[in-house]
Structure formats: structure tokens, C-alpha cells
Amino acid sequence: MRRIPTTSRGLWITRKKTRFRIASFSTGKTVPDANQDTVDQISTILKRNGSNWKLLLESSDVRQKLNEDVVRLVLKENQRTIDSKKLLDFFSWSCTHLGALQDLSSFSILAIILCNGNQFRSASAVLENLVRDKKQCSEILGSIFSCCRELGCCDCEVFQVLVDVYKKLGFFEEAVDVILAVKQGCFALSLVCCNSLLKDLLRLGKRELFWKVYRGMLDAKISPNVYTYTSLISAYFKAGDWRKGKEVIREMEEKGCAPNVITYNVMMDGLCKIGAIAEAFELKKSMIEKGVAPDSYTYTALIDGLARQKRSQEAKLVLKEMVDAGINPGLVTYTALIDGFMRQGDVAEAFSIKDEMDLCGIQLNLVTYNSLLHGSCKAGKMDKAEEVIKEMHVRGLKLNAATYSSVIDGHVHKHRFKEAARILQEMRENKVVLDVFCYNSLITGLSKLTRMEEAKAHFDAMVQLGLKPNVVTYGALICGYSKAGQVHVADSYFQEMSSQGMVPTDSVLLDLVDGHCKSGTIVEALPVLMARISQWMHTNFRICNVLIQGLARNGKMEEALIVFSDLCAKGLSPNVFTYTPLISGFCKQYNLEAAFQLHGQMVQKGIKPNIVTYNALINGLCKIGDMLRARDLFDSISQKGLSPNHVTYGAIIDGYCKFENLVEAFHLYNDMQAKGIKPDSFVVSALVYGCCKEGNFEKAQSLCCEIVRAGMPSTVAYNSLIGSLCQSGKLVEAYAIMQAMIENDSVNHVTYSIIIDYHCKAGLMDQAEQLFLDMKKRKITPNIVTYTSLLQGYDSIQDKSKMFNLFQVMVQEGIEPDTVAYSVMIDAYQMEGDLVKAVFLMSEMLVKESKSNKIVVDDGVTDPHCLKEKVAKISKLIDNMGKLGLGLDLRICRSLVRIVSKGGDNDDLIQIFGSMVKFGWVPESVSIDELISKDQTKHEDSGKLLKHAVL
Question: What is the pLDDT of residues 696-708, one digit of tens each?
Fold first, then answer.
């Protein structure tokens, strides 16, 4: 069914849509003598009596003799002798006395007569009545065709009016049917009508109908004119085929149809929007050579194209050329230039353009102001943003939600959440209609920093206002709670989101999986996750692949294979994006045998591995030092129709550098550059490491300088060089490079951590402390590596006081200790005799390691058997505590027993539990199973207890 408006006030009529077919109609009916007498009587009255005809008809016996045949014949027989306006009035009078006329012929004849009398608006109203009366397109056309032939009318103006009626009512398919049917009915098509319809179809994105009309024109042998060709060019550009668009110009010239400035502008705009700026300038040159002068639109398109590519200085030169040509830039031109400078972060230049607009008397509109606001906020120039808002108020411009949302984003970007919330309050006070996007910015910003209480407060406020959360809103909360370790809350939002039919983005699902993996709940959560996403599996296969990717990147290969098997069991065929994360996961775990088995399986099934698949395999082989197989696989890639990319080269170059084959590494480095593949910082860092390993520091520094000249990020490479210099005792050289990095603003936390670590290992703690303070002064945030180096340094000089203070600062700043930090602090507390704090830390460490289902040792290799040693250590600590009369909280006891039950053997478990009971920490009436099975959600994880105990 189709719904069409009956009036501008929004009433609706339902109308069936049928397949187009012209119905046959005939008006050649046998006319009874009585009817003909009535027709003659009416005709005489209409012809002889000017404005008195209605009175005469009303006073005669005509009303009793009036019927649809009479009305039709009066119209037909008087089409040339009576004014068309009078015939329309007679038709309206007839409808008043007869009610709604059903005879299509009368309407068709009247529409034709009105078109012949240039009464096109009235003809449109007549035909609109037919369409609104649920008459099918085929019926209307059949009637008009028959009436045209009977009346001897050969022009097509009535058809053009009918097309306009269908367009007005939004029935573009029917409008196209009329165009095609006119050709079929052997009537001449109007080029103007066709061009108008082509333009409208293109504007509305109805490309199929566009091409149907264009092909119909060609079939009817209608020669396109400049307007047709212009629409054709635009259609090709919208379809992404700019080469065919360019060919149209050539075809026009061959057929003697000269392109005008509009044609060139359409082409110019298309080229600029796809970034083909060089071709756009060539086109400008060509149009000038052909005598077509560029206008304001031409220059604006070029300026906008350059601005989009962050080439605003060149755009400014085009603006000057435009002014020199005597063309005054308008609001759109200046706005494009302002937007370009803001894209480049050049706020000062953007505002200078704004000043120029003011001098020229060009009033800025909301779009221009929003561009200034967005750019200022993005650059962190909130003072400028406030100035813009004040000016908008002065000029009486009403700020909308989009305007404020630029401002909110700017504050959020700078972590100024109070200011952002203030803007929301201001919006409410100014009665600006709030939208979900304003709240999304705040909720997303807070969630990224895991400030979930505040994010939740804004979410609740948004819902209370009646705003419906969208995918972005839910996604932010799910990601935030997952990263904050509150996966049960993330799960609840995921369920709420799913129940409303919203499909999560890749990043949301990955964060949720990461959260479950890190909290140790993925095994329990996996069946629930699978059940929730099963509704999307058949329509959105990507969701399954993302789940597998999330599990694999967290090392949960067993769980990833469970999802893989379930996927296959449901009859879904795995693709390259299913296999590749599994292969990559096994390679990261050094299980190359399993990785190559999967590779063989996918090839056997006819699934072609992509370059990412081969990159994972090559990287895996390089990690285990199997450079022969890695090189064979690398060399075979081109034979498989693929091309190595910078990741492929990076993996094998890194392998050669680590296994001391610099000659081959540099050979590949030169090869990739020769092929136009730009090396990234990882590749250069690998080469720097290789050169330093051989003691060739001069070559390493030369490489670093090379990437600086090439405009590539150099921090990683320089950090590698600094690390190698420190290891070789070349501290003066390392300091010199670091100083140069500081001057270039390329120093980061890794740079400082490397040099701090060197000083700590050398026992030079005064210098290490100074570097640490300098790091904070430059607002470079230390990470766990920095703190761990300092902790080990203080430990080596036996300065336990500074060690404990630093650990307190680290925990207060929200930095999670790693295994090394835990071990150092546990030993320190034991040496100081503070066994309670030692046990707390041991408990915290074991909880985290058990959740990740692995114990990480110093070399980064996963070793689950290490838990046995740690269990023995904690058992000894418990015994020592008990002997000293110290005690443990029941919650910590429960946590420790759970950990030991997972990783230790039964003897360890019984011994530790027995000690807890013996020392009175656990009631004798409680069994091991009862202690473990207590509701875990009622008890806080030992992390909060750790902070309380240690701080």
C-alpha cells in the first residue's frame, strides 16, 4: 500500500501500487438523442450568455437531464469554441449537481483543454484529483492517450503536467512510468520535462530510476542537451565513477554540445570532493581555454577541495585569484576556508579569515560560527570558543544543540568535565532542546577515564529528560565498566542494549570480552554472550568473528575454538576473518603447529588467506627464530596474488635484526622503499636495535635522522637508540639524544623510563629522582615500568622508607602494580616484619593472576606452574603471622582459599585452611567448600582492602 497526502495539512489516502501497464480506453460511445439535445442546449447557453450562464442553467430543465455523458460531450464538442476557463467552471458546476464524477474521460479531456489554453495550474489540479482518487497510473494514462487521439491533440504538455503532479506527491516511480509510456504511446517526449525529472531523481538519490529515464530518452531518439549532460556527469560522480564523468565532457564536444559553466562546476565539485585536486585544476585551465569563465562556484569548489586536504594556504591563494578576477567571495567560500584552517589546527589564521569577512560586511551564519567553535574546541582554545559564543549572543543568533555540542566536546577533550556539565546546565536554562549527542560526549569522555559514577549520573539525567540512549551511549558505558573491572555492570548494559535491537560495534564487543578475560569470568560469561549475539549471527556474521578476535588476542584460545566450533555447528561458514585471529593467537603463544594446521584447513576449504594471515605466520616464525621458513613464506606471498605491506616487511626485518642478519635486514629495507612502501617507526626501530646490537651506534643515529627528515614519527626509534646506549654505558650520548627529543617535543614516558631504569640499576638514585621530577614537571605521566624501576632502585640501596612512600603514591594515582612490583614490595614488607601487608599484597597478586589464568614471570613467558611456588610462599607467611599473633580478615582468608583451590594441590589447600582455622581466623564450623561457595558479590575484592591496609 502507498500513502499519499491529500492536503497540505497532512491527511492521508491509502493507494495500491500495481505493476505499470497502460489501460485501453475509448470515448467513442453511442450518444442517445436526448443526451445530444441536452449537450446542444448547454453549449448554446455557454456560448451566448457571458457570465449569466449559471443562472440560465439553474432556471432551465438542464439539471434534470445532466449526466456524465453530457458533461463529457459538452467538453469535447466545445474545446475550440468556448474559453477553457469557462469549461472548467462548467465542469465544477456539474460536479456540484452530480456529485463526484467517475468518468475518467471527462477529467482527461478537461486537462487537455486546459493545457491547450495555457491553464497549467488548473490542469494540474484536475489531474491531482484523479491521483488522489486512487486512480492507477495505467488507467489515467490510457484515458489521456485515448482522449488525445480523439481530440486530435499531438502535443505532450498534458503529460508534462501529469509528471509534475506525481513528482509533487512524491510518486517518482509513477512519474518515470509516464515518461516511458509517452514514448510507448508514440507521443513526443518533452526534453525539458525529462531533464527536470532527471535532476529531481538525482537530487533524491534515486539512481535506478534516473538511468531508466535516461535510457528511455535515448530509445526515443531525443538528443540530450547541456542540462541532460550536466545531470549525467553528476550521476557518474555520485556513483563514484569519475572517469566516465570526464568522458561525458568529451562526448558533448564531439556532438557539438558546448559545456557551460554549470557543467564544468558539477565536474569541478565532483573532482574536488573525491580529492582529485590536480584534475580539478586541469579542468579549470581547460574551461578557460574554451572561453568559459570560472564563477564564484568554481573557485569555491577548488577552495573547499584544498581545505579538505589541509592545503589551506593554497586555498588562500585561490581566494586571492578569485578576488583579482573581480569575483567577490561569499559566505560559503569563506566558511570553506575557515573550516580548512581549523582542520589544520591553525586557529589564528581561521580567525583572521573571519575578521576579513567582517571587514567585507559578510554576516556569519550558524554554520560558520559552528566551524569556528568546533575548531577552537578541538585545538583546546576554549577562551576563543567562549568569545565566539558571546559574539553569537550579541548578533542575536540562536545557539542550537550542535553549537553547544562543539563546546562540550572541547571541554571533554581537555578533561574539563565540570565546564562541560555547566554547558549542559546553560542549555537547559536557555531552553535549548537537548539531544543525545550532547550527553554522549560527556558519558564517553568520563567512561574512557573509567569515572563511571559520573558517567552513570549523566546517563540517568539523560533518560529522565526522555532522551533515548543510542549505540554510542551504551557502547561508552559498556567499554568503561569493562575497563573498570565491573563487567557485571557492563553485562547489564549490554543486555539492555541488545533487548532494544541495537547491534554493538566491534570495539564495544572487544572491550566486553577483554573485561571478562581480565576479570577471570570469560568461561562463565561465554555461553551468555553467545546466546545474546546468536540473534545477529546469520545477519551479522562479523559479530562472531569479533568475539573470536577478542578471545584470541587475550590468549583464550580454548574459548575461541569453542566459539569457532559453535559457529560451524550452526551451519555458518567461517571466512578469512574467522581463521586469521585464531592463527594470530596461536602464533603469539608460539604454537606454530596449531597455527599452520588452521592455515592448511582454510586453504583446503578454498578460503584464501589475506596479507594479515601471512603477516601473523611470518611474525610467529620470526619470533621463534625460524628465519628460513619465514623467508620462504615471505617470498611466496607475491605468487599468491598478494603484496607484502609495511607490517610484513616489519616482521621479517625485525626477525633478521634480532637474529643478527643485518645485511638481509637492510636489503629488505631498501627493497620495500624501492617498491614505494613507506617504512614505519617499528621497522626503523628494529634496524636501530640491530645496529646497536652490533655496536654500530653511528649507523643507528643516522637511521633516526633519516626518519625525521622523512617526516615519520621518530620517538620509538630514538627510544630504542637511547636504550642501547644506556646498556652500553654511553650515558653522555643518551642524554644528548634525549635533550634533542625534548627540544623537538618528541620525548615521552618511555624515554624517561629507559634512562631512569639505567640510573636505578646503577644505584644513582639522586639522578633517577631528578629525572622522575622532571618527567612530572613536563606533565608526562609515569607508568608501572617507571615506578617499578624506582622501587627496585630504592630496594637495591635499602631505602625502604622511600620505597614504601613511592608505592603509596603509585597506588593513589591508580596505577596497578605488576608482578615485579608486587614481588619487590612483598619481600620489602617481609624484611621489615610487616607480614600483614605482605600477605595482603600476595593475596592481591594471586587474585589478579588467577583471574587472567596465568602466572607471569620476569621474561614474560606464561608459566602456570609458578603458582605452586607462590602458594608455598604464602603458606609460610601465614604460619609466621600466626606465630606472631597477627590475624587476617575473613574476606582475605576466603580470597586466598579460592586462589589456592584453583592453582594449588589439595595438600596445599588443606594445610593453609588448617592454619587459618588453627589461628582462629576462620570459624571451626566452616568447611573449605562453604568458605569458597559464599556469595562473592557480597565481599569486596582484596584490592580495596589492599589500599586501606597499605595506605
Answer: 888 888 888 877 7
